[in-house]
Design goal:
- The protein is an alpha+beta fold and 146 residues long.
- It has four helices and five strands.
- The chain has a five-stranded mixed sheet.
- Strand 2 and strand 3 form a beta hairpin.
- Helix 1 crosses helix 2.
Length: 146
């Protein structure tokens, strides 16, 4: 397995994987979004490849605002991670996360954070297996202003 930092030429490949993680978006929509993201200095995307086949990605960034449970910014943040089903439970996600953590440390971060939905037991178990500690649970609310 090879892990490498994505470049703008990888936007279509990342977009195809990202559409699997966020199925309410098309691969083309995701590719457009990632093309812009890959040009930014405060974010990074890492690709996992088995030979010439891209099988996973992780998106990370810097957060300068408040991040639950942290002592201050910037904080490295795992924004999204996806591994093709055939490659899950083989350490690929751990390698992608480690690449993000290494990048964040190089950007001056002392902490690395993430989040997931309260009901996503698989993601919670994944985060815990990598050494993340749960720091808070919240329910978010919104209402339209009239």
């Amino acid at each position: 397995m090879t892990i490498r930092q994505a470049v703008p030429a990888d936007a279509a490949a990342v977009g195809a994987l990202a559409a699997c993680l966020w199925p309410s978006h098309t691969a083309d929509e995701m590719a457009t979004e990632f093309l812009q993201l890959l040009a930014r200095k405060d974010s990074a995307v890492f690709l996992a490849a088995d030979g010439k086949e891209d099988v996973g990605f992780a998106q990370c960034g810097l957060r300068h605002d408040y991040v639950e449970g942290t002592s201050g910014g910037p904080v490295g943040y795992l924004e999204g991670i996806f591994v093709s089903p055939a490659y899950r439970r083989s350490g690929v996600a751990a390698q992608l996360t480690a690449a993000c953590e290494h990048w964040a440390k190089g950007m001056g971060c002392r902490e690395f954070a993430s989040d997931c939905a309260l009901e996503n037991a698989e993601s919670i178990a994944f985060h815990q297996s990598l050494g993340f500690a749960e720091v808070n649970r919240i329910v978010c609310f919104v209402k339209p202003l009239r």
